[in-house]
């Protein structure tokens, strides 16, 4: 079951949106774009594990994309310091 994510930070410019969401547990996470696209955008993810010196355990993977949101999944997550950075670009 996907959990909805609260976007912590975002940027919206001509056709590009970006943000950072906390991922507090492994599993799926649904992220809603601040502004819907007019079609399906391209989404790129990067992990950010604050104050850690080791690598994340699995790859953050996009499993669904619509004009309004996307869903990602991995076994990664931490209660206070694991985040996923995302960039989406497409027609707005």
Name some characteristics of this structure.
single chain, 92 residues, Immunoglobulin-like, 4-stranded mixed sheet, 4-stranded antiparallel sheet, 8 strands
Describe this structure as you would to a colleague:
The protein has 92 residues and is mostly beta strands. The chain has a 4-stranded mixed beta sheet, with no helix packed on it. It has a 4-stranded antiparallel beta sheet with strand order 2-3-8-5, with no helix packed on it. The model has no long low-confidence stretch (mean pLDDT 89).
How would you briefly describe this protein structure?
The protein has strands at residues 3-5, 7-13, 16-22, 27-32, 42-49, 61-65, 69-74, 82-89. With 92 residues, it is mainly beta.
SSE order in H/E notation? EEEEEEEE
Low-pLDDT segments: none
Tell me, briefly, the overall form.
elongated
* Distance separating the two termini: 29 Å
| Strand percentage | over 45%
**Share in helix:** under 10%
Number of helices: 0
Rounded average pLDDT: 89
Q: How many strands, which pairing sense, and closed or not: the largest β-sheet?
A: 4 strands, mixed
CATH fold assignment:
Immunoglobulin-like
Radius of gyration: 13 Å
Would you tell me the structural class of the helices and strands? mainly beta
The count of β-strands is 8
CATH architecture title: Sandwich
* Adjacency order of strands in the biggest sheet: 1-4-7-6
Kindly give the count of domains: 1
What is the top-level CATH class? Mainly Beta
């Amino acid at each position: 079951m996907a959990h909805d994510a609260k976007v912590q930070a975002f940027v919206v410019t001509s056709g590009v949106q970006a943000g950072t969401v906390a991922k507090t547990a492994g599993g799926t996470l649904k992220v809603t774009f601040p502004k819907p696209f007019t079609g399906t955008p391209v989404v790129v993810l990067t992990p950010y594990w604050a104050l850690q010196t080791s690598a994340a355990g699995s790859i953050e993977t996009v499993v669904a994309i619509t004009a309004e949101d996307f869903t990602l999944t991995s076994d990664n997550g931490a209660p206070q310091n694991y985040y996923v950075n995302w960039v989406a670009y497409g027609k707005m």
